[in-house]
């Protein structure tokens, strides 16, 4: 755990804090041990001999007060820096991870970590390290000083201390096992609750709301069972710790009484033994009570470390310095890629010329979306090279690559803000007039006119206040505003009605005058107007060419075209 803290906060601060904790614990132990010579002097009727020891005791108490104040300030300071550093490092790291890493169970775990995990980890230096260090260092100091006064007292305290430490370690392991189970079930339950809230329309449409949603019910039951196990596992452990501490105190009392009755231990030493035993066992009781919380904190730190250890997509140390001007070409050179299983793309080579509209067509699962994701470097290829503007995307920094691309994907996410601010995300420095112009090109201004507060209307979480087609138009306006040399659209017009699709299509085609446009589309109008059509099938480029050329081949594209024309001719007739 100390190694984890050092890696996050810094070795110098952690060492300084630990030095303060150890110093405080040692001075506390010395103060407790100084009770022995004071009592001996008082029982011997030599009050004058007690004054030096009382002065030393007072000095130790004053030093304890100063160190305790310094420890409290440093603990809270380290805890705050720890939480801030974790948030920053986690955010920076997540933004650099491959998108394939973000699976459903990991989303729930991340949510639990950033909400509860950071708070628990912050409490480790602020509240838990001090009693932990005190629990070991203070009794050890008391034992060492006791040997100087009476070796039998030191031996008795040392023996009971070893037994208490072993008991603490045993019960702490039990608490740690339960914590892993509670964390896993809580993350699953949290993910299911979010899923249940976001998918209400689908669940209600299929009668799966309430208790009929078995997945949520099962996750909540598992969490309940884990919570019960934590109670049945942790409470006995705490009881065992308390029992062992009180047993040790009774054993020390019996041992001291036996020596006193035998005449080998004077009454003053017996009283000192009882005082030391009380102060000896007190920090151990507190550490036992906080032991479970300490293990939970360490486990959460380990979970943070696990996420931070996931390799990110490597980037060049320095920018290439090549500025993107005008339209850019895209090239795939013998690219093979898969999502951990069978390859989705196999030995794909293609070229998308600048200032052209290229359409990707093919059956579901043929790799169309994967092509756009590799261009945007959401993943690295298994073999082969993807080039943008003649540069391997792996040789461009994220900022350089993203400055060349505008992305409009099938799954649109809007932030809980106004439509204007969601569009402005494409170019934060854009003026209001530029935002409104991009919105007009994507017909977003028509949406705004229907909203109660116009441009100031908030769209809700994920854009819940808008329809799917409206969200897509906002996303397209965002891409138009960015004004990047390359525009990637994945099923971008699929959710639009024919009138708005035509309007948005005209706006997007206007960009190809000096832009490179790659579109995944099933609409006949988009496919027919493309300068180049790439037909993917089985992870390979089966055919390429313009509309007329591919129709004359009577191959896969011709089959695709005939199927779409038949589907376009369907009509609902009244009986």
Give a written overview of the molecule:
By secondary structure, the chain is α/β, with parallel strands linked by helices. The protein is 65% helix and 10% strand. The chain folds into 2 domains: 2-308, ABC transporter transmembrane region fold, CATH 1.20.1560; 330-568, Rossmann fold, CATH 3.40.50. It has 19 helices and 10 strands. A 6-stranded mixed beta sheet has the order 6-7-8-3-9-10, with helices on both faces. Strands 2-1-4-5 form a 4-stranded antiparallel beta sheet, covered by helices on one side. A hairpin with a 2-residue loop joins strand 4 and strand 5 (391-392). The chain starts with a helix and ends in a 7-residue tail after the last helix.
Compact description:
This protein has 575 residues and is α/β, with parallel strands linked by helices. The chain is 65% helix and 10% strand. β4 and β5 form a beta hairpin.
**Oligomeric organization of the protein chains:** single chain
Q: Kindly provide the name of the CATH class of the largest domain.
A: Mainly Alpha
Helix/strand-derived category reads: alpha/beta
Q: What is the C-alpha radius of gyration, as a whole number of Å?
A: 35 Å
The percent range for helix content is 55-70%
Number of helices: 19
How are the strands ordered across the major sheet?
6-7-8-3-9-10
Q: Report the average pLDDT across residues.
A: 78
- DSSP strand tally: 10
Shape field:
elongated
| CATH fold-level topology of the largest domain | ABC transporter transmembrane region fold
Terminal Cα span: 74 Å
- Level-2 CATH architecture of the largest domain: Up-down Bundle
Strand content: 5-15%
Largest sheet: 6 strands, mixed
Q: Could you state the CATH homologous superfamily of the largest domain?
A: ABC transporter type 1, transmembrane domain
Helix and strand element order: HHHHHHHHHEEEHEEHEHHHHEHEHEEHH
What count of domains describes the coordinates?
2
